[in-house]
Amino acid sequence: MGVRVRPCVSVWETRGDREVKTLKTFCRGRKRSPGFTLLEVLTATVMFAVIMSALYSVFHGALRLRETAYDAFEKKLPNDHVVEVLKDDLANILVPTGLFASEMLGEKDEKKNCRQDHLGIHTASGVLRDSEPWADIQRIEYYLEAPEDPAEAGESSGQDLIRSVTRNLLASVEETPEKESLLHGVQSFSVTYYDGQDWLDSWDSTARASDEADSTPLPVAIAVQIEFVPPQTGERETLPIEVVVPVVAKTVTPGASQSATGSSQSSQSGGTSGGKSGGTTGGTSGGTTGGKK
Predict the structure, then answer these.
(1) Inside any domain, residue 10
(2) Is residue 95 in some structural domain?
């Protein structure tokens, strides 16, 4: 079926008295079709492109911020774990008085102007499990060790902080301790000990126990400082870790314990003798007096 086109009619029009004629064309039944011009389409396209580019910039910035926050959180998570483990081990340190709790040894070591100390203690921080027969007392050692693959790690990768655990303290044959790598990229690991007056770089409980001037086998507090290698280009700097833990465990010297035992025994004997003598004297005098009467 074809489209019916109505013809257009042209009319000359005279305005007033003037001899001006205007040609007007009237198209019967023909209307303008709805739509947009080319200029309108181009303007809308440009506006859409500007809005999309702005949205992409905002979305890309949000993704980068999320990735940065996630990397910082992942990098800080092992540090928080190490702090909790150090606090738990040092807070539950045992007085070196027997087989299960032998000497406490803290040695200072320095290489390339960086502290690489070694700390060995006995703590009651062991986890009790039904599948293991060990008690909560264990031997803990902290020290620095080179990475397992130095070539892959690189020269400036630093060292690993190792936590060595020995659970079976009554083994007839010395067992190999379980090693756990707590941190990577460590440059310095220093431990200092507070004896009540000064901070010392090393500690030996056996030597201090034989010292007549100060026979305290444990320090008053222990401070641990961990520094990391400088970051490479484009990496975030890792803040050092500093932990100060007071030592709760105390020991009683033999002289003080003997004097306390002697004083308690003397007070008990004094009270017993006083009560016995008083009762005997009162009973004898009372009986004698009553008999005479």
Answers:
(1) no
(2) yes
DSSP H/E element including 180: strand 178-194
Structural domain count of the chain: 1
The single residue listed with the structure tokens 């056996």 is: 206
Structure tokens at 196: 């009540």
User: What counts of helices (H) and strands (E) characterise the chain?
Assistant: 4, 13
Does residue 176 form part of some domain? yes
What is the token pair recorded at 286? 């009372």
Instruction: Provide the domain limits for residue 225.
Output: 70-252
Cβ neighbours of residue 36 closer than 8 Å, sequence gap 6 or more = 44
Q: What is the residue whose two structure tokens read 């198209």? A: 27
Write b or e for each residue in 90-126: b if 16 or more Cβ atoms lie within 10 A of its Cβ, otherwise e. Answer: bbbbbbbeeeebbbbbbeeeeeeebbbbbbbbbbbbb
Rounded Cα distance between 208 and 69, Å, is 48
Give 10-residue mean pLDDT values along the chain (293 residues): 52 56 53 75 92 91 82 75 92 83 88 90 86 84 86 67 89 85 92 92 86 78 93 79 89 49 50 45 42 42
Quick check: is 57 in a domain?
no
pLDDT of residue 276: 45
Record the pTM: 0.62
